[in-house]
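Fold this sequence, please.
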Amino acid sequence: MRYVITIIVIIQSFASFAQKEVNFDDFLNLFPGKKIDSVYQVKFLEQGYFPQYQTLGAVRIKDRTHSYISLIIQSDCFAGGMCESQELYTFSNDGNLIDQYEIQREKADCSFSSKKLSEFFDSLFYTVTIEEEGDCSIDLITKRKISIEEIEITQDGEIEVKSQRIIPSNRNHPNLSYQRLEAGKLNQLDEDKLAEMRNEIFASYGYDFKTARWKNFFEAFSWYQPSKQSVSKDELNLIEQYNLELIVSEENTR
């Protein structure tokens, strides 16, 4: 009997899809902040509707260009623990789905996983993923992993992963590689700390320091593997380039 009722509900749901005609402008009018119901999910997101598993919400329209529109959509679900994610979708201007990519995720059960949209630079953006494993019985983190992805939206709306990189979690300042610094907070740091942060960016790429001070300083860390006589600015990602320029600018005011 329960099986028959389930079939009837599914049939009624899909019958309602046929009765409600929606267009792409209707879909865009959901942004920001409205719930994306089953009709829009099936027509524009090319996925079935499973209300017991997830709720989709329209977060915001990120970009409109002559060839594509990009949107951010949030999904809430329950999968052995609480989870929440955000996906970046790209569409042609007439509403055809081009591509999609997960840019944020929060999942917590006995372990913890977090993927966040870190920084945007026009069509280039970065995500940072932090994964933690631990002993739930004593609330102890035993392993931590940080990774960043550099992703680009092409002129045609395709979403491409340009690079992936593991960031050692035992660096003193791992955020220098995935998060832009605030200029107003740097003036609170002394010259030694600014120099340490500046040099850590180059040390993370394996720069072999010529001065004994910084060579000895970074050799104390297991993640430091000196292998290069020089590291050019172009080797750094855009976040690191931004932070480096900000640090140097602050140093020049001292």
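Strands lie at 54-64, 69-78, 82-91, 97-108, 112-121, 124-135, 140-153, 159-167. The two ends are 78 Å apart (CA to CA).
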